[in-house]
Amino acid sequence: MRPQIKFRLSGRFDGLKENVRYSVYELSKASGIKLETLRERLARRHTRDIVMPSDLAQIGFYRKVSVLLETESEAISQEWLAKPLADQNLINWLLEDERGYS
User: Fold this and answer.
1) pLDDT at residue 22 in the model
2) How many beta carbons lie within 10 A of that of residue 12, not counting itself?
3) Can you tell me whether residue 89 is helix, strand or coil?
4) Domain tally for the chain?
5) How many CB atoms lie within 10 A of CB 60?
């Protein structure tokens, strides 16, 4: 039987005490995340033995936070990046000219 890995909780999470070491099973029970999902999530942290409250948050929380972290300048930048560089009429004209239809 392999040794059980314990993670130290760094931060506050309902039902758990800060700076106490918990197994993945205990963290799964407290957070309501499937055991396999939490194992995969923590495995991506490589050798880190600390678990943050954000690691125990539901997946919808991550999406909500990422939207809230977007600044106004990032939103404006994305609007400009999403615009086409050339008008569709110009593109059609260039394609026709290239094919010799003009």
Assistant:
1) 92
2) 9
3) helix
4) 2
5) 8
Which is more confident, 61 or 70?
Answer: 70
d(CA 56, CA 26): 11
Amino acid identity at 78: Q
Domain residues for 26? Answer: 1-58
Phi/psi for 62 (5° steps) reads -60, -45
- pTM (two decimals): 0.54
Residue 63 lies in a domain: no
Statement to judge: residues 10 and 30 lie in one domain: yes
Residue 19 is encoded by which pair of tokens? 């700076």
CA 102 and chain centroid, separation: 50
Do the beta carbons of residue 7 and residue 24 sit within 8 Å? Answer: yes
Indicate if 48 and 85 belong to the same structural domain. no
Tens of pLDDT, residues 6-27: 888 888 888 888 889 999 899 9
Question: Is 22 inside any structural domain?
Answer: yes
